[in-house]
Amino acid sequence: MITVTGPLTGQSTVAETILRALPDWFGVEAATLAYIAQADVLPTFVAKAGEAPVGFLTLRRHSPDAAEITVMGVLPTAHRRGVGKALLAAAEAYLRQTQTRFLQVKTLSPRNPDANYAATRRFYEAQGFCRLEEFPELWDADNPCLQLIKYLHPEAP
Fold first, then answer.
1. What is the reported pTM?
2. What is the pLDDT of residues 94-103, one digit of tens each?
3. In sequence order, what are the residues at sequence separation of 6 or more whose Cβ sits closer than 8 angstroms to the Cβ of residue 17?
4. Segment 15-31 mean pLDDT
5. CA–CA separation, 56 vs 59, rounded Å?
6. Torsion sign (Cα): 75, 126, 39, 110
7. 93: number of CA atoms within 13 Å, CB side?
């Protein structure tokens, strides 16, 4: 059974353990270090199987109406077991309580054919996110960014 707690701060150890297990997604060291640091200071949700952390999600609020998933990671052994969905549901419930209306996430654009990120995009789209805009050089020319957005309907469970 998966349990999710949060929002928490001080989760850099959890973030580092999980991100280091995901080199196909988090291979840029400077970015990985930034994500780890964010988990210490930004609202973070942690998913556990029993007592062991298997995933986490960190949020950044941009305005009273909008927030962003800055990073989400799930251990490879826990992929396709509902961990990402559970993390997202907990984060969305928290954001709805604060009357946040929009949640965004940035990921690798399909201009880069990476199969891992194709799965990431499919996950977010299956959870109700829509493609909003591409930023071909936000990160760099080899890593074009796709921004996805989701309306957080206030009556949703």
1. 0.93
2. 999 999 999 9
3. 53
4. 92
5. 10
6. positive
7. 12
DSSP string, 55-89: EEEEEEEEETTEEEEEEEEE-GGGTTTTHHHHHHH
Question: Which long-range contacts link 26-32 to residues 24+ away (Cβ below 8 Å)?
Answer: 26/73
The closest of 104, 92, 5 to 45, measured between CA atoms, is 5
Omega prior to 154 cis, within 30 of 0? no
Tokens encoding 79: 């992929």
CA distances from 146 to 17, 32, 110, 142 (A): 26, 19, 8, 13
- Assigned token pair, 107: 């990921």
Copy the structure tokens of residue 35.
């994500």
- Taking CA atoms, 89 is separated from 99, 106, 133, in Å, by 15, 18, 24
Report, as an integer, the average pLDDT of 1-28: 94
Residue 47: which of 69, 10, 74, 20 has the closest Cα? 74
Count CA atoms within 13 Å of residue 36 on its CB side.
15
